[in-house]
Automatic annotation (TrEMBL):
Keywords: Hydrolase, Signal. GO terms for molecular function: hydrolase activity. It comes from Flavobacterium sp. CFS9. This is BD-FAE-like domain-containing protein. SUPFAM superfamilies: alpha/beta-Hydrolases.
Length: 303
């Protein structure tokens, strides 16, 4: 009996050491829209501000929930990072985000999501003292559509693309980007001056979001919803040409089902990446993981 009581006490003490708070906060509201975020906070350390990872879920801008990656938020909070998992406008709900959709509507969906992300970032900067956040150590992350938000929020011009009145400071820059199966519309937006450290994961057989340069949803060029995107492998090559910090995990033969890997099985990769960025380490790596599916495309590293 004494052993059982001792074990229970030890377990409770361990969890108390790693205790976290989860706060649901409204970061934007007007007459027609209310957007919340879940803020996962680690145990506060004296005289030390907390780095933050802002996360956007996937779902084709038509579905998904900010609570879907709760385990990721708890894992990072246990390891000293705050995580803000945001809701954003699902503009494509009830609309076609595929090949029969409209290009302008696709771009608008991304722009709205990015503007929401910027609003969340602005809110968290203003709330930094209240929640002990280090505004110089804000990372951005996402899965699929959320990763597309992350890419464009990192490199689009705030003043040109923001749909709301409030804007981030001209010199604001995210500390790094963590993306699962994401892509960007214009790779040239990632310049030597604007580049930030990245951790990307992608399946090279992804037919939804291209792994390299290609069309969204693999649409033919004559489709009304045709949209060219530059995926993780294209970005990896671009970043290596710029001699900037980049890590890519490729699932040879894998499709879009690997989009959530970094936030599920690969959480340790995210933690290591963020720690390395904050320590100022230089890195460039390409981890290749075989899957059970046959790889397509001319990628010698997958043969």
């Amino acid at each position: 009996m004494k052993k059982i009581i001792l074990l229970l006490f030890t377990t409770l003490a361990f969890h108390n050491i790693h205790a976290q708070e989860i706060k649901t906060l409204t970061y934007f509201q007007n007459d027609t829209l209310k957007l919340d975020l879940d803020l996962y906070l680690p145990k506060k350390k004296a005289n030390e501000k907390t780095p933050l990872i802002i996360f956007a879920f996937g779902g084709g801008f038509s579905g998904g929930e900010r609570t879907s990656e709760k385990d990721f938020g708890l894992f990072m909070a246990k390891n000293g990072y705050a995580v803000a998992s945001i809701s954003y406008s699902l503009y494509m709900k009830g609309k076609d985000f595929g090949c029969k959709g409209t290009l302008t509507e696709k771009i608008k969906a991304i722009q709205i999501g990015v503007s929401d992300m910027w609003q969340a970032t602005s809110f968290l900067i203003k709330s930094a003292d209240q929640y002990n956040l280090d505004t110089s150590k804000f990372f951005i992350s996402g899965i699929s559509a959320g990763a597309e938000i992350g890419f464009h929020a990192s490199f689009w011009d705030y003043k040109l693309m923001n749909l709301y009145q409030n804007n981030l400071a001209p010199d604001f820059k995210y500390a790094g980007f963590i993306g699962g199966s994401g892509a960007i519309m214009d790779i040239n937006l990632i310049s030597k001056e604007k580049a930030i450290p990245m951790l990307l994961a992608h399946g090279n057989n992804d037919e939804t979001v291209p792994y390299n340069a290609g069309s969204h949803r693999s649409c033919p060029t004559n489709a009304s919803g045709w949209l060219i995107l530059f995926g993780s492998y294209a970005v990896y090559n671009h970043m290596t040409d710029l001699h900037k910090n980049i890590e890519l995990i490729t699932f040879c033969g894998g499709g879009h089902e690997f989009s959530g890997y970094l936030f599920h099985e690969g959480q340790q990769y995210v933690l290591d990446f963020a720690n390395n960025v904050l320590k100022g380490k230089k890195f460039e790596s390409h981890l290749i993981i075989p899957s059970q599916k046959k790889s397509s495309g001319n990628y010698l590293f997958c043969e």
